[in-house]
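B., you asked whether I could sanity-check this one before it goes into the benchmark set. Here's the sequence:
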Amino acid sequence: MPGATVNMLVLGDSAIWGQGLQENEKFHSLVQAAIPARNPAVTSVTKVVLAHSGAKIGSGDFTNPAPLTVPPVGEVPTYYPTIMQQCQQFTGPPAPAEVDLILVDGGMNDVGVMRVLDPNVTTTTLETHMVNYCYTAMKVLLVELERKFPNARIIVTGYYPILSSQSNPWLFDAFGRGVVGAALWLGGSIFWEWMKQPLIVNCQYFAGRSSWHLWLAVSEERIASNRQIDFADPRYFGLDESRAALTTNSWLWGINPDGSPQDTVVRQPACNEAHAARSDVDVFACERASTGHPNAQGAAAYANAILAILFPPRRLTVSVAPSPVPLGVPTSVVVSAEDANTHAPVVGTVKVRNFDTLGKPVYAEFNTGTAYATTFREGRVRQFDPELRKWILELISPGGVVNATGYPSAEVPFVW
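And here's what the prediction gave me:
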């Protein structure tokens, strides 16, 4: 991160705005707090948030209605300003050339949540829309961001499965009404059985393929522009099918059995004003707009995905001498560890699993960089083979793990 102050800009839709969350729970706030905590050279992070619920990328859409005024404006699902307009209309402060970091998402509202949650829409149709928006429109947006903010690092965030096979079907009808609005919802609990599978397929297909197209757009533009552009996927940090809406331990807002939202943000005055001003705002859905969006745990998954890019975890490279290590004879080995990036030596402990003369496991610890003398043997472990339907003996060679402060554990690649 450059300089003592980092200037961060947040653009996009409801996921990155933080629908239904308190300010300190939103993932851009978590990132804002984590940067100076992890980098002592940074004393502060300024933040400008232009993202809002409902925003689409809007490439080629020049509709520009009057701004909403009743807070919290960002909680109102509306297309405008589009994400492209958020970018183009920003004048500062800070000056565009002084923006250091941009967090941005987009594509879901262009594809349309109603399409994803429509059992009559096929994955082929979704694929067409994702190519058009998550790939093509995102590349157009990235080019504009590069032009407008010449010194900014850009991180694009992905999406997640809204529903999965682990979602509670009894709450699905209320959930659908909360997401798309009572007047637009095609479902009803009586149709649940035939709707269930295609909706789950659509939700999982969107999560996977939208991430692929966003990643591809980011990767190609990073190469073409030679800029720092990265893709942060919250699915790899826990926001997967097991945390979809209406699951046992969901990381998304669901909806209460009486149809009320689970969050505590008061949106009704803003929803009423927006509905009077804009035809694309449904009051019923607006009041329940948190439904299907990351809760505090889901937001933390997003923050962790972003921070893993900004602060890559340190990793160890380990080596063993001599290699290969002989079995069955007295041997002295030295395990060395170094930082994978700096190649500086790292002091840690090696926990080795060896086997005695009866083939039973024996564990020992010694320090990296020091000699450890023993006789290494193979172990004999009884395991049940389901195909042969009997217990068999398997030979297992010794192995080890290096532990060092500040690094994840590293397997020791013993060669025998």
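One thing to flag: The chain has two domains: 5-310, 316-412. Otherwise nothing jumped out at me.
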